[in-house]
Structure prediction request, 139 residues.
Amino acid sequence: MFLMPKKVKHRKMFRGGEIRGLARRGQNISFGSFGLKSMESGLISSRQIESARRAMTRYVQRGGKIWIRLFPHKPMTKKGAEVPMGKGKGAVDHYVARIKPGRVMFEMDGVDIKIAREAMRRAAQKLSVKAKFVRRDEE
Prediction:
């Protein structure tokens, strides 16, 4: 089960240029006690989000609660293999979330700090951007 929008106004979107600047929203821990904050900008696919979520939930087993603070709204297109040049833009292949430095991507609560730190470390390995573990009281 991968995240994707239920309905979109425009099926295909421009890729956009370089992702510049710092996150202006979503930079504080709002729900849990621990978070995973991005250190660099990039695109995170719905598959990566799901993989990180699974890594965290497997590690904490039946304890704690996890919040996903990012959503892949941006469609990415891809042309089929060995398709000649021209003939328009390819079909939508997957969806990505644009991430800026300072964005809290995941939050967790109801577990010990050691367990939370290791779960977040495992989740960070699944993502394409560098991330750090943060606590609510450290902000």
Notes: The longest helix spans residues 46-60. The longest strand covers residues 91-99. Residues 36 and 120 are 6 Å apart (CA to CA).
